[in-house]
Amino acid sequence: MRTFCLGLLFILLCTSCQDQKDSKEKTPLVEVNSNFLYLEDLQEALPPDISGKDSISFATEYIRNWVKDMLLFEKAKSNVRDNDEIEKMVESYRRTLLVHAYQQELIHQKFSREISDSDVKKYYEAHKELFKLDVPNVKGLFIKLPLTAPQVANVRRWYKMTTHDGVEHLEKYSFQNAVKYQYFCDKWIPVPEISNLLPLKVNDIGEYFNRNRHIEIKDAAFYYFLNITAYRAAGDEEPYESAYLKVKDLLLNEKEVSFISQVKEELYQNAIKRKDIKYN
User: What pTM was estimated for this model as a whole?
Assistant: First the structure.
């Protein structure tokens, strides 16, 4: 087998250097009871940029596994009696694959994926009970400062303010002094995403944030300031902003199902007109 594969590797390297011919014929490599493994199939299976030594090992194992599979296949054919039922299953699966491929082509060519924001909002308002938070969400702002940062006393005052002036002071200050500044008073953020910014370990971080809306922490190198302006617990209604994509996907799926149903109905009506359907 190793000698065979060395020769095979030489063929692979030579063949890869030749221009591909227009002929659709393949080069038989191994035969097991009239089942063929072709050189071209092995070439396609070879991983890209594989070394010469590794390609020998790969080819050896690939061929051996293919031979074993074919031997098992031949044994199964001679021992499984209900071949008719299997053929029915194969044909049913083939029809399913063809139909699926055709549907995907139709969707690609003729299906509009546009869903208006007004439709998304309308669906969300009518089905709020379907959208629940898996984890707590918060709104607020976060700032991380080095211990050497100036005007920390002002930061302690500014980060608790949600007025335009307070936020503006903090943003201007952060550009020059903050390691990280994140303003999210206008959108909901999952609690784990925010808690990862803090050197804080508590059993229930969501409940901790709910009870402590103004958090200041200090470690060996930094100050951490977090102002939580709004809080929603796990299991609460999911905010529209975070549910938006889920709602849009639901509407898109419903629209797609409706589109395929319409295609089927048109085919059915056309078949009736052409008298293609015969009931015996």
Answer: 0.64
